Amino acid sequence: MSTGNLSVGLNRSIRPESITVLVSRAALLGLTLLFGAMTLFGSLPSLETQMVIYLVGMVALNLPHGGYEHFSNLRYRGLPFGSKYVLLYITAIAAFIALFLIVPLIALAIAFATAVAKGGHGDLRVMDAVVGSSHLQSRLQRSLAAFVRGGAVMIVPLYFFPDTYYMFSAYMLAMFDPGLSSALWASMETSRPLLAGLYAVAVLTHLGWGLVTAGVSSSWLADLGETSLLVGFFAIVPVVVSIGLYFPLWYSMRQSGRSAYVHRETADEDDGLPVPVVWGTFIVGAFATGIMAALLWTIAPNPLGNAGLLPGLVAFYTIFICIVALPHVVVGEWLDVDRGIWYVP
Q1: Which residues have C-beta within 8 Å of that of residue 142, sequence separation ≥ 6?
Q2: What's the pLDDT score for residue 276?
Q3: What is the pLDDT of residue 26?
Q4: Regions of the chain where pLDDT drops below 70
Q5: N or C: more exposed end of the chain, with fewer CB within 10 A?
Q6: If we measure between CA atoms, which residue out of 127, 189, 139, 176 comes closest to residue 300?
């Protein structure tokens, strides 16, 4: 290899998006090994400690990134589009809160499905931009890949940590109707083996289909490694910790890498909004988020889900972030066909 080619290869390997992907893999692998060892020696942290980790990861680390995704999507789009976008976003949030008040069990199922969609489709776009997705050559194949990536977040821990999963799901439902705990238990007992079996078949089909399509390509090998890592992470790390750290250390970090890639590929675009407007937007967004949380706290009959303060806050924040996540995916990506929060040129 010539010196010039070597220099190009090194420059590509140290690009920001490549670094974020490597760090996300190292973070989840390190946590998987750490908690695997803790489990083996019977030294897992207390549930209280796990809940603190969840709140720090989801509130302090992940929440700001969600606002940035919308901002980076809207800053080049103009006021008329942005106004319609925000209006539709607020309408979707109001409708989802109403659904929780009317049929909480169905709303909770939609909330969990939203987490699958967010993790899966978001990661799929990172594959397009950074990791490689040449082994995914049809819409059905891409949809299956998104289900496998996102399903690891909600289906794997349901199978391996059913008691904790049920406990916090019951707290979430109790925010709106404490009498639904028996119905929740029955639905989870029925769905748990069915979803686990479906997910296992989906993983094998996804990886096998990719192998048949592209052979042992670099993109397929990366997919094999990352899919295995995600399944192992959610099977070994306790569910409260795994979900609390997945979103900042995997989802947000990798989306930051995708954003760096997009910024470089679209360098000919102007800088968008002026800096004062940028800061003003973030401040307004922060206040709006706080107002939405306060509104949910006021509307929910039992905002702590009849639990103690710490588990109640975990349950409340989980419901809140799920309510915000539905328009995040539907409005921010699926309805915004021109660009979207996970835009890849």
Answers
A1: 124, 133, 136
A2: 62
A3: 97
A4: 1-13, 267-282
A5: N
A6: 176
